[in-house]
Write a structure and sequence with these properties.
With 293 residues, the chain is α/β, with parallel strands linked by helices. It folds into 2 domains: 130 residues, 3-Layer(aba) Sandwich (Rossmann fold); 143 residues, Rossmann fold (3-Layer(aba) Sandwich), CATH 3.40.50.720. It is built from 11 helices and 11 strands. The strands form 2 sheets. Strands 8-7-6-9-10-11 form a 6-stranded parallel sheet, with helices on both faces. Helix 1 packs antiparallel against helix 11. It is globular, with a radius of gyration of 19 Å. It starts with 12 loop residues before the first strand and ends with a helix.
Length: 293
């Protein structure tokens, strides 16, 4: 049964997601479905905000009465640097994907790590503990995934990114947070990259590669083999180009829809403090990506 939206009025509470670009986002679809199901007089919007404008924009959004904000690529690390009030989750990840309104301004949270763990278990019935993990991408989401795997008992974490400095900085942070975890860095251009991927039990594609259907896969078929679990954070396609390459080699694959869902559930719970209709959010996302029945 479809819930009828209340007409927008002066009492309507605004929420939003910010990114650059933002046209790919499915966050408004799942969050609006939940807000409608909860019969809240609220609207969830999406805005394209360039990184250098983010501090000014979020300050204005607080003044305008926005009750919560999500952040996606490439704004998570920018938000971390712009905020002084940070939850432990954001401080550890050095990235912010959720802004929670307080009387004094925004408080930054990161729900990516916990959302990833829930999605990983849902997709493959596994957790990082005791496993070797390969993470392609060391930006906001990749950083959260790599650190989450490390602090949750991964045996080894290998990282690659086009930005070698960012890769090294993340490796240092993992060693600080989880000194017992073996950490390795490999350059994207290194001929050893496919072998490093093949050696891992869990591979996470955490770069923007694949958001455009014409993109080449982050890793080609030589990087995979049967028995591996490959999780691609790109979520707008049922099967991404990297998933296709991995599946052809016999690996198990999943797109990032589950992580989008679970990090969003956590964010909405932080904003509202109520029980979240997870099934409603999941149905809205699956309908958008896989189509209605």
């Amino acid at each position: 049964m479809t819930c009828r939206k209340k007409p927008v009025s002066g009492k309507t509470v605004p929420y939003a997601v910010l990114g650059h670009p933002i046209g790919h986002t499915l966050s408004p679809i799942m969050h609006q479905a939940a807000l409608d199901d909860l019969k809240m007089d609220a609207r969830y919007l999406a805005f394209d905000v360039a990184p250098d404008r983010l501090p000014t924009v979020i300050e204005a959004m607080h003044a305008m009465g926005f009750n919560g904000v999500n952040l996606t690529v490439p704004l998570k690390e920018v938000a971390f640097r712009a905020l002084t009030a940070l939850d432990e989750s954001a401080a550890q990840m050095r990235a912010v994907n959720t802004l929670v309104r307080t009387d004094d301004g925004w408080r930054g949270y990161n729900t990516d790590g916990e959302g990833f763990l829930a999605a990983l278990h849902e997709a493959f019935a596994i957790q990082p503990a005791g496993r070797s993990v390969f993470v392609f991408g060391a930006g906001g989401a990749g950083r959260a995934v790599a650190l989450t795997c490390a602090v949750n008992g991964a045996r080894q974490v290998t990282i690659t990114d086009l930005d070698a400095t960012r890769t090294r900085e993340l490796a240092v942070e993992i060693q600080r947070c989880a000194p017992d975890v073996a950490v390795d860095c490999v350059a994207v251009s290194d001929p050893a990259l496919p072998a490093a991927s093949r050696d891992a039990e869990l591979i996470v594609q955490a770069s923007p590669l694949g958001m455009n259907p014409d993109d080449s896969p982050a890793l080609d078929g030589k990087a995979f083999h049967a028995g591996q679990s490959v999780y691609d954070l790109v979520y707008m396609f049922p099967e991404t180009v990297t998933m296709r390459a991995a599946a052809k080699a016999g690996a198990r694959t999943a797109n990032g829809l589950g992580m989008l869902l679970h990090q969003g559930v956590l964010a909405l719970r932080l904003w509202t403090g109520v029980e979240i209709p997870v099934g409603v959010m999941r149905a809205a996302l699956e309908n958008a990506v896989y189509g209605g029945g």
